[in-house]
């Protein structure tokens, strides 16, 4: 029965050397091989039988000695193997042949020991090359970047040192007023030359702090005996410094009702940057400080309201021509940003948020700073965010609303018939002390509230006129508000009728 089994079955069940079970036709196809070290249990005379090949193998044992053995290698379908990796460990070499006892003559030799230098085959070698190239390139890039950064930093430091070392010669006895007047008549009309500004800034001695805003501290300083105000911006407020400096240096900006600019300076770099803005010093401080402790008569009220209107009018007005001035909207008008001059008039300060408009280019130049105006003074369209940011006139009309609130603050402090109100901020009784956006929106837009007015205002001609004026400034609809030119003309008439000297 066994002899009748299919040759395939015989293949699967037989091991080389099982010659007892071989069919005669199969036995003819089997090879006899010499075996040593790989002999089957029932071998005879170191002979084995296989359907595959005879082999001889030389292997390195644990002591590093070469041992030669041989035997039969079965043919098992596609799994017939007679090859070896030259990199196998421990080292070995196998050789096969296909005639009876042919493996007796085989003399395989051990592969040479592995040379660490030849460890990489081509794939490894390629990967190695790529990673080395990437590493080298990265290293070169880092070195180049570091080098240029270092060079840039040293250049920058040298530039700053040079600038700091450079000084303009300002003759002794020359006052700030002289210097500014000279530059007005000879220069571009946009302020002192830069080097003169830096020289003045460097020569200033700081005396004491006189004010603090949201964007910096204001100090009283002294330049060759003259008092000046030095606004020191917080480092993070560079955009505010930049805009304020830029606006003050706009051609034809100088006006008696706009804070007089003297110089701007920047010292140091990075986290140690110090930003200075040097202006005229006004010992009476802001309009807010002044109104708190001082009352006005009607003449004083008109002078003050008129001078503020003149300042705002100059700011708002575009002057045409090659040496023209753009129209400027303040965007943070309030009593704390108006300074009191000694002669009872005032000037507009804090231009860090101003926007410029040039009708030639039709461009609205909004500053890049994240600063926003003061919530208490924000017009309804700013609060309900309906203001069209691309429409310059919208900013102008929002300024008029704030101006209306400022003259309300002034009018409360005007004594008529022996009566005067205490100083208060607009909406003081309607919103909390540091009102949120929502508080203001609720009061101004939703409830439509406006600062309250004392009865006495209606019984005084001047205050009645002022009330009319302020109401027309703080109208809900921006288009219904007066222009600053109209306000100025109305006040000018009132001033004239009262025979007040401005
Ligand atoms: P901020 O941009 O931080 O609001 P401001 O320019 O409004 O700074 O100044 C803050 C305060 O400092 C003002 O409200 C005022 O009291 C005082 N101050 C500013 N400039 C002057 C000046 N030139 N003379 C006198 N006081 C000033
Ligand atoms: Mg301010």
UniProtKB/TrEMBL annotation:
Keyword Transmembrane: yes
Essential cofactor(s): Mg(2+); Mn(2+)
BP GO annotations: cellular response to growth factor stimulus
Catalytically driven reaction(s): L-threonyl-[receptor-protein] + ATP = O-phospho-L-threonyl-[receptor-protein] + ADP + H(+)
Localisation per UniProt entry: Cell membrane; Membrane
GO cellular component terms, semicolon-separated: plasma membrane; receptor complex
Record Pfam families: Activin_recp, PK_Tyr_Ser-Thr, TGF_beta_GS
EC number of the protein: 2.7.11.30
Domain of life: Eukaryota
Basic and acidic residues biased stretches: 9-18
Transmembrane segments: 125-148
Region annotation Disordered: where it falls in the sequence: 1-21
Family: Belongs to the protein kinase superfamily. TKL Ser/Thr protein kinase family. TGFB receptor subfamily.
Annotated protein name in UniProt: Serine/threonine-protein kinase receptor
């Amino acid at each position: 029965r066994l002899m009748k089994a299919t040759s395939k079955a015989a293949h699967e069940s037989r091991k080389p050397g099982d010659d007892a079970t071989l069919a005669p036709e199969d036995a003819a196809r089997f090879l006899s091989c010499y075996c040593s070290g790989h002999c089957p249990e029932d071998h005879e005379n170191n002979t084995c039988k296989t359907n595959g090949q005879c082999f001889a193998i030389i292997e390195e044992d644990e002591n590093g000695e070469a041992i030669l053995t041989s035997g039969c290698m079965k043919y098992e379908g596609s799994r017939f193997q007679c090859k070896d990796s030259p990199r196998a460990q421990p080292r070995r070499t196998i050789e096969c042949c296909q005639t009876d006892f042919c493996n007796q003559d085989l003399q395989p030799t051990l592969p040479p020991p592995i040379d660490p230098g030849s460890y990489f085959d081509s794939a490894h070698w390629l990967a190695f090359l790529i990673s080395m190239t990437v590493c080298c390139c990265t290293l070169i890039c880092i070195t180049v970047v570091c080098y240029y950064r270092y060079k840039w930093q040293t250049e920058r430091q040298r530039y700053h040192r040079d600038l700091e070392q450079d000084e303009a010669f300002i003759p002794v006895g020359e006052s700030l007023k002289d210097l500014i007047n000279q530059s007005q008549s000879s220069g571009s009309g946009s302020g002192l030359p830069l080097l003169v500004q830096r020289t003045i800034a460097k020569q200033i001695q700081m005396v004491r702090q006189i004010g603090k805003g949201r964007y910096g501290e204001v100090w009283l300083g002294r330049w060759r005996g003259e008092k000046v105000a030095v606004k020191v911006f917080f480092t993070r407020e560079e955009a505010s410094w930049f805009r304020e400096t830029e606006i003050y240096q706009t051609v034809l900006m100088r006006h008696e009702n706009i804070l007089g600019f003297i110089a701007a300076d920047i010292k140091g770099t990075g986290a140690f940057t110090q930003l200075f803005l040097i202006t005229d010093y006004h010992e009476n401080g802001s309009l807010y400080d002044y109104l708190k402790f001082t009352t006005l008569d009607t003449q004083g009220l008109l002078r003050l309201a008129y001078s503020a209107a003149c300042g705002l009018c100059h700011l708002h007005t575009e002057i045409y021509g090659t040496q023209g001035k753009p129209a400027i909207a303040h965007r943070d008008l309030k009593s704390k940003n108006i300074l009191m001059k000694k002669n009872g008039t005032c000037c507009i300060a804090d231009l860090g948020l101003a926007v410029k408009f040039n009708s030639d280019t039709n461009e609205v130049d909004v500053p890049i700073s994240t600063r926003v105006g003061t919530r208490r003074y924000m017009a309804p369209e700013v609060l309900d965010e309906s203001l069209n940011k691309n429409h310059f006139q919208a900013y102008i009309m929002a300024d008029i609303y704030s101006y209306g609130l400022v003259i309300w603050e002034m009018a409360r402090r005007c004594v008529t018939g022996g009566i005067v109100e205490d100083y208060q901020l607009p909406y003081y009784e309607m919103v909390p002390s540091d009102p949120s956006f929502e508080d203001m929106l609720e009061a101004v837009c939703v409830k439509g509230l406006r600062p309250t007015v004392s009865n006495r205002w209606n019984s005084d001609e001047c205050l009645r006129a002022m009330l009319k004026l302020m109401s027309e400034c703080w109208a809900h609809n921006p288009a219904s508000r007066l222009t600053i030119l109209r306000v100025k003309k109305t006040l000018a008439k009132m001033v004239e009728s009262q025979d007040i000297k401005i």
